[in-house]
Write a structure and sequence with these properties.
Layout (H helix, E strand, L loop, with lengths): L1 E10 L5 H12 L2 E6 L5 E7 L1 H13 L5 E10 L8 E3 L2
Parallel strand pairs: 2-5
Antiparallel strand pairs: 1-3, 1-4, 2-3
Helix pairs in contact: 1-2
Length: 90
Amino acid sequence: MVRANIVVSGRVQGVFYRAHTQREAALLGLAGWVKNLNNGRVEILVEGDREKVDGLIAAVKEGPPMSHVEAVDVSWLEYQGEFEEFEITG
């Protein structure tokens, strides 16, 4: 099990990016959250099986149809198991 902090840059606000991320995470059975940042980027904190987290990273690199992802920065952290579901928090 792993934990990852992901920051996504590009046209990722106002294009259903958080909803897309939440849906993909739920399909993969992952837990954590996604939120908009004040600087126009989106931050994701996710926990789960490494292969499934890698699947979410691939999905957020694509994004929903109206988005344009320019960069995805991933930081791997120690798994903590603190989440029960995946939520949109901000």
